[in-house]
């Protein structure tokens, strides 16, 4: 998608309203209605870099870390690790004065485009968030590791960085604080695995994008062996509002009962009437997101199932729409919130074909480092292709379920394979009959098995 429509980013409240305010929409209130980027002059007119000035002139480094920790901000890339806790893992040893801040802007998750919108339309928000975060981490250099296909985002970020440098907001002795910070956009070659932070680090260093063994964690040994912190785009874009408005304000944004604080960029794609992206409070029900914002299914289509946050999350049924959109709320119905951008699957979609398409993607994007992922995912693709052609055997479904177990959490080198098989396991759980329909007659199946054995 290009040229995001800012009018889709509606207010917290009735879905037919468009107004956004600084008090309720920390990420999107500065957006222009025409969808054009907000450059430095306009950004500063809209209170831009005020939080950075506060952080650099009024707050100690430890105070910034503690404020973010107290806010309860969690990573917005999908894993949901507490940001302040992650920052606190950086070594306190002042002799380790070479540190790096990396922004994970790879965003290769299918059905996800939230970071792209922020970088294309509000590039200075990310620059400011990284400036404050770098001050907190004592990092003298930052890299935005950007998905190579995001050409407009790269152009806009580079312009924003140039504007910030010219205004004394990046570079040496920023705002007279004595703090130096250089920011660089690095475009990647386009691999899903670079969303894993240590694979990203390897790629940035010019190496093959394989995940690293942990420990040591990047906070101790990261880019070029130096302490490194990796945060997602949306995560970093929350930092200016937290510093500027305070912890108590930030904690009021989410719906009552939500264990996650603040707002989240959420969306719906698929055959819905109003596919789009909205900044909404954590804890809103998936039904409200689907019906009031996305408008429900298009005429002639019914909702068969949905994924709450990218291709690596499990499928849920229409009755699960009453779940609350925050990590624990979605966990209660059996999967993960992920990126928060949901996919609606309509009644015309065959689940075997959909899963074959997904597993082909995940199989192709595997780095090949560990055996379960390298061999297991292609195996699942082979079986799904057979079932799709109606040439499966009675054992195929059990084999697929075995792969879901063998490639599950804690059994592979990184989280790529567990994410890849989560939708497969849930699809078989809820739509097993569609997989069984791909089993051939006993004669044909026996012939296929004999061929395989040969």
Automatic annotation (TrEMBL):
Root EC class: translocase
Pfam family, one: NADH_4Fe-4S
Assigned EC number: 7.1.1.-
UniProt keyword list: 4Fe-4S, Flavoprotein, FMN, Iron, Iron-sulfur, Metal-binding, NAD, Oxidoreductase, Quinone, Translocase
One MF term in the entry's GO annotations: 4 iron, 4 sulfur cluster binding
Catalysed reaction, written as an equation: a quinone + NADH + 5 H(+)(in) = a quinol + NAD(+) + 4 H(+)(out)
Domain NADH-ubiquinone oxidoreductase 51kDa subunit iron-sulphur binding: 352-397
UniProt cross-references to Gene3D superfamilies, sorted A to Z: 3.10.20.600, 6.10.250.1450, NADH-ubiquinone oxidoreductase 51kDa subunit, NADH-ubiquinone oxidoreductase 51kDa subunit, iron-sulphur binding domain
Cofactor(s) for this UniProt protein: FMN; [4Fe-4S] cluster
Annotated InterPro entries: NADH-UbQ_OxRdtase_51kDa_CS, NADH-UbQ_OxRdtase_suF, Nuo51_FMN-bd, Nuo51_FMN-bd_sf, Nuop51_4Fe4S-bd, Nuop51_4Fe4S-bd_sf
SUPFAM superfamilies, per the entry: Nqo1 FMN-binding domain-like, Nqo1 middle domain-like, Nqo1C-terminal domain-like
Transmembrane segments: none
Presence of the UniProt keyword Iron in the record: yes
Domain of life: Bacteria
Assembly and interaction partners: Composed of 13 different subunits. Subunits NuoCD, E, F, and G constitute the peripheral sector of the complex.
Job description of the protein: NDH-1 shuttles electrons from NADH, via FMN and iron-sulfur (Fe-S) centers, to quinones in the respiratory chain.
Family from the record: Belongs to the complex I 51 kDa subunit family.
This protein's name: NADH-quinone oxidoreductase subunit F
């Amino acid at each position: 998608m290009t040229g995001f429509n800012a009018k889709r980013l509606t207010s917290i409240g009735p879905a037919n309203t468009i107004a956004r305010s600084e008090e309720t929409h920390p990420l999107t209130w500065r957006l222009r209605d025409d969808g054009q980027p907000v450059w430095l002059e306009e950004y500063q007119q809209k209170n831009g870099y005020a939080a950075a000035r506060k952080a650099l002139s009024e707050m100690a480094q430890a105070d910034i870390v503690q404020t973010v920790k107290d806010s309860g901000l969690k990573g917005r890339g999908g894993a949901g690790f507490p940001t302040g806790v992650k920052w606190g893992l950086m070594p306190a040893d002042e002799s380790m004065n070479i540190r790096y801040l990396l922004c994970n802007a790879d965003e290769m998750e299918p059905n996800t485009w939230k970071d792209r919108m922020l970088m294309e339309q509000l590039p200075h928000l990310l620059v400011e968030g990284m400036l404050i975060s770098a001050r907190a981490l004592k990092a003298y250099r930052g890299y935005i590791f950007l998905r190579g296909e995001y050409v407009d985002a790269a152009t806009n970020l580079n312009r924003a960085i140039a504007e910030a440098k010219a205004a004394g907001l990046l570079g040496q002795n920023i705002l007279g604080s004595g703090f130096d910070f250089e920011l660089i956009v690095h475009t990647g070659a386009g691999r899903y695995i670079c969303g894993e932070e240590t694979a990203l680090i390897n790629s940035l260093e010019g190496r093959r994008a394989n995940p690293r063994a942990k420990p040591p964690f990047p906070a101790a040994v990261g880019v070029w062996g130096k302490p490194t912190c990796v945060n997602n785009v949306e995560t970093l874009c929350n930092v200016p509002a937290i510093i500027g408005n305070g912890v108590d304000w930030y904690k009021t944004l989410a719906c009552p009962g939500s264990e996650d604080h603040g707002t989240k960029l959420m969306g719906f794609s698929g055959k819905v009437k109003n596919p789009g992206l909205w900044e909404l409070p954590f804890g809103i029900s998936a039904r409200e997101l689907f019906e009031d914002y996305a408008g429900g299914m298009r005429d002639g289509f019914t909702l068969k199932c949905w994924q709450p946050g990218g291709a690596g999350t499990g499928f849920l049924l229409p009755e699960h729409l009453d779940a609350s959109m925050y990590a624990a709320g979605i966990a209660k119905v059996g999967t993960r919130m992920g990126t928060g951008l949901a996919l609606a699957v309509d009644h015309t979609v065959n689940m075997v074909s959909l899963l074959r398409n997904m597993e082909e993607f995940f199989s192709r994007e595997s780095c090949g480092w560990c055996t379960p992922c390298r061999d297991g995912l292609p195996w699942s693709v082979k079986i799904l292709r057979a079932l799709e052609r109606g040439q499966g055997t009675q054992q195929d479904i059990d084999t697929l379920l075995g792969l879901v177990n063998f490639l599950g959490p804690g059994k592979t080198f990184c989280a790529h394979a567990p994410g890849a098989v989560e939708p497969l396991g849930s699809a078989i759980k809820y739509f097993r009959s569609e997989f069984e329909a791909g089993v051939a007659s006993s004669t044909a199946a026996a012939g296929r098995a004999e061929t395989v054995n040969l």
